[in-house]
Specification:
With 68 residues, the protein is an all-beta fold. It has a domain of 44 residues. The protein contains no helices and three strands. It has a three-stranded antiparallel sheet with strand order 1-2-3, with no helix packed on it.
């Protein structure tokens, strides 16, 4: 159903919601809801998704960027 998993239509990823506490979101249309709730007005906002892990960046020095 969703892009990343079958539970994707959730308030925490909706354009019309904003986080007010850890697991509670304020919906523009329905009021205070839990993060996993959803409704027919769900519109996916990709900027609200947080990656599960971030890759470690390599350590660079000034020498790596010189042309010598």
């Amino acid at each position: 159903m969703g892009i990343f998993n079958k539970n994707a239509p959730a308030c925490k990823y909706c354009l019309f919601s904003s986080n007010i506490e850890n697991d509670e979101y304020l919906c523009k249309f329905r009021g205070v809801l839990k993060s996993e709730d959803n409704c027919k007005r769900f519109k996916y906002d990709p900027l609200k998704r947080v990656p599960k892990f971030q890759p470690k960046l390599e350590k660079y020095t000034e020498k790596d960027f010189s042309l010598e």
